[in-house]
Amino acid sequence: MKVDMYFWLQALVMALVGLILVFTFVGRIIGVDGESMMPTLHNKDMLLLQSIGYEPDQGDVVVLSKNTFRDGAPIVKRIIAVGGQTVDIDYDTNTVYVDGVALDELYILEPMRELPAEYATHIEVPEGCVFVMGDNRNNSTDGRSPSIGVVDERCILGRALFVLLPFQDAGVVESISQPRA
Questions:
Q1: How many domains does the chain have?
Q2: Which of 48, 136, 143, 174 meets the CB 3.0–4.6 Å disulfide criterion with 162?
Q3: Is 175 a catalytic residue?
Q4: Residue 63 · residue 72 · CB < 8 Å
Q5: Among the options 51, 77, 147, 175, which is catalytic?
Q6: CA 159 to CA 175: how far, in whole Å?
Q7: Which of these is catalytic: 2, 36, 51, 147?
Q8: Which domain holds residue 133?
Q9: 36 an active-site residue?
Q10: Looking at residue 52, which CATH number applies to its domain?
């Protein structure tokens, strides 16, 4: 009896260690907190992330953590530009330009309202960094804000692959690739 119990306890510990390693290095499960990514993602959605081997790309939905915003709590945003690119935001035409090319943003919730002057409208993204925005631009603190700005790629926890919960919303989180100028 003791041998069986020891065997099962050992198997359980090994399974837990395996799960911890997988979720630490390969992928993670993270919840969406807020409405900044609507209509793509909703508050309380549970996401499966790809962590290992991920290289940031324009259009990807990512989870990141930046100490200057919400004490480093994970946030979900879309990558608008990567290192070496320039972003210009024109509120009059509701257009975001990357390297002078207007993005085709069918995923945004509604036209953007102009933000106060301290929010960026021209951003040059340094190498090793990304510029992110929420799909719900009027309800998103994102790269335009001085509290987030451009984000070092090392702050990215992973790319959102799937919505796991709630079951009625389960499915693939699609990246929207944009042509490069």
A1: 1
A2: 48
A3: no
A4: no
A5: 77
A6: 9
A7: 36
A8: 28-172
A9: yes
A10: 2.10.109.10
